[in-house]
Write a structure and sequence with these properties.
transcription; about 40% helix; 5-stranded mixed sheet; LysR_subst-bd; 3-stranded antiparallel sheet; LysR_HTH_N
């Protein structure tokens, strides 16, 4: 018959191992020492291996089998604590899981900061995260696959979806430094870009079917995601718009060049929180919306972003020798 130790036996075993003696464990557990010894003896009988070396030692010492079992006991009892915390949270109204859809327009640093704090604040809440572009965020919220969405353009008016502006971002037209457009040392015209390949992301949600945003070139390469578009532009295969937060380091290093193109609309891009009216967010999802609002309201404006990049790229002025 396979051994079937109880959680109580494992707790007693772990307490003896951590306190260093049967007497200390009996005090910690508020049980008679004889009960502690009897529990360990029963556990050893079930497992058919000795867990402690008792002969010739004033204090019980773990055997090799005992040391191996100790890690298993810690893991099992740790899982029990997680389950207890989750049950307690559910009884208090906390969600078991938060499903969130986030647009690529949301600065990655804000996403990482919020999720890092979310993990600390709600350790018992599971997270289901989807990151995408264009209509994906609203599509997932409308379909009920996401509890909340943090994203850009509200592409379809729907009374069943509650939206609130919580911040902004913006796109910038860029190209690799070896691209022909980057070599034109002047403001670009629509004629300059018409015959150059423009990289464009296709909206997998279908909400923008038949609609193009800032597509100015006659020749377009359409890709499925912003990450592929980013890499192809850096490789010099075309030009296109990318979220400013995504290309901050590329602009600083010179891996990408901002294109001075008036025809490309570069206004601030609003970021909204979205949720279904019939599915109000619980405490964890509400906290997440507030956390994103706090961080996104401090994002720099387009003018401040350009000034910051220009300042950081200025070479340091060497000090004159005395």
């Amino acid at each position: 018959m396979l051994p079937n130790p109880t959680l109580d036996q494992l707790q007693v075993f772990l307490t003896v191992a951590e306190t260093g003696s049967f007497s200390a464990a009996s005090r910690a557990l508020n049980r008679a020492q004889s009960v502690v010894s009897y529990t360990i003896a029963n556990l050893e009988t079930q497992l058919e291996v000795p867990l402690f070396e008792r002969s010739g030692a004033r204090q019980p010492k773990l055997t090799e089998a005992g040391r191996a079992m100790l890690e298993d006991a810690r893991r099992i009892l740790g899982d029990l604590q997680v389950m207890r915390a989750r049950v307690k949270s559910l009884k208090e109204g906390l969600e078991a899981e938060v499903s969130v859809a986030i647009s690529v327009m949301v600065p990655s640093k804000a996403v990482v900061d919020v999720l890092h704090e979310f993990r600390e604040m709600f350790p018992s809440v599971s997270l289901n995260l989807n990151v995408g572009e264009l209509g994906m965020v609203m599509d997932l919220v409308m379909s009920g696959k996401a509890t909340i969405g943090i994203g850009g353009a509200v592409l379809k008016q729907d009374d069943s979806v509650v939206t609130e502006r919580i911040g902004h971002s913006f796109m910038m037209p860029v190209a690799a430094p070896n691209h022909p457009l980057a070599g034109l040392d002047r403001p670009l015209t629509l004629g300059d870009v018409r015959d150059e390949v423009q990289l464009v992301v296709t909206d997998a949600s279908g909400l923008t079917k038949g609609r193009d945003f800032n597509v100015l070139s006659y020749k377009t390469w359409r890709v499925s995601d912003i990450s592929t578009k980013h890499q192809l532009i850096k490789a010099g295969l075309g030009w296109g718009g990318l979220p400013a937060s995504l290309i901050h380091d590329d602009l600083l290093s010179g891996a990408l060049i901002h294109l001075d193109l008036d025809a490309y609309e570069q206004g601030e891009y609003p970021i909204y929180s979205m949720r279904r009216l019939a599915n109000p967010p619980g405490p964890a999802a509400t906290w997440m919306i507030d956390a994103f609002r706090t961080r996104l309201t401090h994002c720099p404006s387009q003018a401040d972003f350009h000034a910051q990049i220009a300042e950081l790229r200025e070479p340091a002025i060497p000090l004159a020798a005395e």
